[in-house]
Design a protein that fits this description.
187 residues, alpha/beta, six-stranded mixed β-sheet, 7 helices, globular
Amino acid sequence: MLQQFRYLAVLDFEATCDDSVKLSPQEIIEFPMVVIDTAQPLFPVVKEFHSYVKPTFHPTLTPFCTGLTGIQQETVDEAPVFKVVWDQFLQFLAENNLTESNTLFVTCGHWDLLRMLPAQLKTLRITQTPKVLQQWCNIKIASQARNFTGLPDLLDHFGLEIVGRHHSGIDDSRNIAAAARKFLEQG
């Protein structure tokens, strides 16, 4: 399935969170994407999109959230709000001709595109979700080797180590991309 698309767009959001209270609504605070070209030898990463996002409903990050993601309060305070990042992301997709016919999004679980993005868009009354974001591959399911509980298990399955910080959206996206590249190499 993965190789029928020219591009794989690996995405792994980070969102506001707490260990003792469920925040409502949760908000995306890191919006990363790593693009793999499946038509080139060794399936290189050819593009990246990355932005931190200033939360508006819960503007102060919890200590748990900062500890988990490594994202500092100053970082989100200085970041654009989601609508601005969303528009930049849509522009990135258009400028790089990443469409539903040539691009498949890849996630490590369904949460990012099944739950988090639709909830974020609904909260902001954004009704148009590009078709390219309506289909994706959960690499944990596609790998089918065993039940993965998370990214560390997935990387271990492919003989890879975590590079960077786990629960950093851009680092996790790059690590998922590395697993996707191994998956493609194995045919």
